[in-house]
Write a structure and sequence with these properties.
By secondary structure, this protein is an alpha+beta fold. Helices cover 14% and strands 22% of the residues. It has a five-stranded mixed beta sheet with strand order 4-3-2-1-5. It starts with a strand and ends in a 59-residue tail after the last helix.
Amino acid sequence: MLVIRLFRTGKKKQPSYKVVVTDRNNPPQGGKFVEQVGFYNPLTKEKILHADRIQYWISVGAIPSDTVNNILINENIVKGEKKKIVFKKKKNPEAEPAPVAAPAPKAEEVPVVEETPKVEETTPVAEEAPKAE
């Protein structure tokens, strides 16, 4: 399946993006793409989009990503409503608490009978003999 998405280029902390048509299975960074249909620089807000090529690829069945779809709607290339973009937070395994096990369901309670301590009969102990001095 074909998608229209952003392909990051540029240096660290200086992003710029190519708007490309690519297969969905290709990785977003460094993957091969079918055609470059535009350019976007978020720092300077510069956008170069080839509307006729984008409309062609959409007619063939390419699906724009949420971000590209919102850019196309802003530029009046595509009609529709903007999509809400939700960023996933990365899970930190060290900071994540261990899952708490649910308490086991109680089985039928068996009445506990308390045993009375047995008293042993003791024989009288002879008194100690006086110590010789």
